[in-house]
Amino acid sequence: xxSISISGGLSGLLFWILSANIFPPEEVGLASAIISxxxxxxxxSLFGFDIVLIRIxxxxxxxxxxxxLISTCFTISLIVSIIFSIIxxxxxxxxxxxxxxxxxxxYFSALFVLFCLxxxxxxxxxxxxxxxxxxxxxxxxxxxxSFGRIITVLxxxxxxxxGIVLSYCFDLIxxxxxxxxxxxxxxxxxxxxxxxxKVITEISHFSFGNYIARIFEFLPTYILPIIIVNLVxxxxxxxxxxxxxxxxxxxxxPKSVFTSLLIEGAHDRKSIKINLWKSLALVGIILFGxxxxxxxxxxxxxxxxxxxxxxxxxxxxxxxxxxxIPYSVNYLFISLYRIKKEVQPIILTFFGISSITIFGSLxxxxxxxxxxxxxxxxxxxxxxxxxxxxxxxHKWNSLLSGIPHIENE
Length: 409
Fold this sequence. Notes:
Number of domains: 2
Helix content: over 70%
Radius of gyration: 21 Å
Low-confidence stretches: 405-409
Order of helices and strands: HHHHHHHHHHHHHHHHHH
Strand content: under 5%
Mean pLDDT: 86
């Protein structure tokens, strides 16, 4: 999973560096808002089925059971994706007039619906099917194809914003096709459109809580570019999107460290506290190095995207990387909750961070610009961390000792 995240993050970083140097900020900003809209619709269309597939696929011993489960999840998500994407386009003048091109250009409209479908399937494959089948290496093979968009964007330069979106979606199309090939020929799972009522009944109680938690976790990532393109400009959306992408890559490290070490500790209760302090120490060292690097050479790094990105994005990046400290501690609590299978505090944590970030941004953007998002993100993480600290301080030992023991297989 870590290798997939790093591979996808690296290809995305190279893609946006190239795009930012080829296209003007206005076109980069508009494309990033469109791509964020696709991500939001795909996220809403998943219904937590990726988590369902991870939990239930390993227990399905017969291929027909696996095929029915996967086909049902795919079919429902695709239908919902079509409905949501069409509703989004029809109501674009209400919730995002800055993206009116999706409504006025029918070619763009059709592609938007199509790409939402492919993104939904890609998320189900990468985050659900191959992990559930315990063959996550096939997800890595898919992510390698994402480097193809770096070449595609050079070819489609003449299309402007559409060229960026088409290039970005190149890996979605090739990756999904490759994933379907693996399912049919490697796993003998011929996926077909179907909805099995028995499957829906069995999985409904698994998906809802994780679905809500996942929405709040990624809501700022997908909705903030849409807010900026409407409240400020496509140009400022580009500056924000590049900085947020850089910050998101930074967060891969604490997420991976906490998840890996704490799950390892779940196999041995006695090592939980040891692994916890190891996690905190390692994450602290990583973040300290990143923060020092950003404050000293951050503007130079952002200038790889173009001089304007360095000038207009450095102050926001400084705030976001410092905010990575409280976010990482919040994610430590989330990792503990996940191992204990407590969904409600996970939902509340992500809800607190996302709601304060989004509403704070709406208040601060008109007066502070995109830097206001940094203050809102920082405030959301600090406030939630303080509340989590009060919630857990009196039961810290029980929070750790209550983690279930997992037998080694």
